[in-house]
Amino acid sequence: MKKVTKLVMSVLFAALACQVGAESQENELRKALEDEMERSLQTLQLENEPKPYFISYTVTEVNSVSANATLGALLTSNSNRSRILDVQVRVGSPELDNTNFSGASGPFNLNLGGLMGGGPSFPITDSYDEIRRVAWLATDSAYKNAVSNLAAKKAALEQQNIEDRPNDFSEEEAFVYSSTEHYPVAIVELVGKLAIDLSISLSGMPDIHTSSATVNSVTTTRLFLDSQGNSHEIEMGVCSAATKASTQTMDGVQIRGNSSSYARTCDELEERRMSMKEDVVAMAKNLMFLREAETLESYSGPVLFEPRAAAQLISQALTGRLAASPKPITEASGFSLPVTENPFQNRIDSRVFPRSMSVVNDPTASEFNGQRLLGGYVVDAEGMPSRRTELISNGMLKALLSTRAPTKSTSTSTGSNRVGMGGAVPGNLFIESSDGVSMDELRSELMTLAEENGQEYAIVIRQIMDIGDIDMSDMDFLMQTMQSVMGGNVAVLPAVQTVKVYPDGSEVPVLPVSISDFVDSYYRDIVACSEERQVFNLPISPVGNLMGMLGGLMGGAGIGGLVATQQYFMSIVTPALLFEDLTLRSATGSKLRPPLISHPSSQLEVRRSGLDF
Fold this sequence. Notes:
By secondary structure, the chain is α+β, with helices and mostly antiparallel strands. About 30% of the residues lie in helices and about 30% in strands. The protein contains eleven helices and 23 strands. It has helices spanning about 1-45, 130-160, 190-200, 265-270, 275-290, 305-315, 440-450, 475-485, 520-525, 540-555, 600-610, and strands at about 50-70, 75-90, 100, 175-180, 210-225, 230-250, 255-265, 300-305, 330, 355-360, 365-370, 370, 390-395, 395, 430-435, 460-465, 495-500, 505-510, 515, 525-530, 535-540, 570-575, 575-585. The strands form five sheets. Strands 8, 16, 17, 18, 19, 20 and 23 form a seven-stranded mixed β-sheet that branches. Strands 1, 2, 4, 5, 6 and 7 form a six-stranded mixed β-sheet that branches. It has a six-stranded mixed β-sheet with strand order 14-13-10-15-22-21. The termini are far apart.
């Protein structure tokens, strides 16, 4: 009995020691940053220049595990752990500081969030002296850049007549938060097995030319501190599985498809393994179906976006409009992009949607109809708490999402700086309608509109291209997309699952089409919505956020939802949307000569059947 008691006590003491050690390490990280921040606030100063009035430190630790497989063969498998320190330094005052300025270094020096000097490598184990050293050098660099930018910004303002310029930094109440959620790092073998199993789903399909399955697990911890008393410690986790495939039509048109699933942990994805494999097979069958699809040269008329396509359209064509961003001050002699303000910033209390529709951003929600909303969060990258914001009410624009960078239409933050790139991004976006109808009624309305236009068929879009499916070597497509944004239009990627629908209910698939010259007024032309709404979790990233901001600033909404780390999400709850009149054109792009001989698996299938060839 005494031996058992000693054993139990030993285990308890060991567990307590580990906990104390972890807390001590965490406290050492926090203490080192707090001490260096205080020293910098008091003593960091160039001669005849102001001291910093604001400093923030963000330490982000990422544990990632990934695996890639093709047709049951594991291609890569790796794990990685890293830390990054991000430093923000502001000099001047909240009324006028160094941020929101584009200098002579070009358009990528916008510094919309004051992120100068961030990003040095950081020790993954806590050493008080080493943390102080890295923070010291990073803060010094950020301060010098801040002083230089403030001087150049003041000179630019003296040469320009800018009226009613908003402040550069909002005054906010301090917010302190510490998360209790914990996400374990995924097991490499589990991630690899899941990737292999998904890739096997595409075996025995000789019409599929290329395919791959990638599973990524990312666990992120973030410590944020600033000189105004804001601080948070949070842990985030996500596991994603993306299976991609491609084929060609007989005349060489490239067709790509993907099937993606997301969860907070890989154990959750493992529980959905069978349904994910079914989705992969369905995606592949649709690709083979599209090999016989028609080319739609042009079309003008009613278009129905089924819920998935509606969510992708909203992500790409609306979310940039819902974010308020100040117009950057630019040097008169420096190269800069043709920047204009988001037009929605001048349309508060104006009608932008049908009177029956409303849009709400609510990152405090965690689920909808039993389905998890991955876009939910408690605190944003600037330390501001998330909050519910009614954006559009009965068709009228009431508010925009904002960060701590005020605009003419916003003075305080809505807690929407999601990924630290300075721009506001929705969390959980709810599209609501007071007069939704059944899908059968919606399709009936679609066909009625087509008949009134004297058309033989109508168009239904089921899926829009994901950013990960863009062929970066297709320069024609990339230039067309950039020209669309620069011209003030909204950039929407091509629809990759589109069908012609005839009065008898029959459907004919068409090859990828693009939506021509999508403009804001089209939102008001939504003639009907489905009563049923569905949830779609779409990954976002710093790269995608930056593109969205640039698109919004140049008059377009940009391309939302670009996938890089797949760590942050936007959840869109939307009905199907019926537009009265859109123009579509073929977006098949360049053609490549198909393979001269058949896929090797077709030969294997013949051998297995016992036939001689």
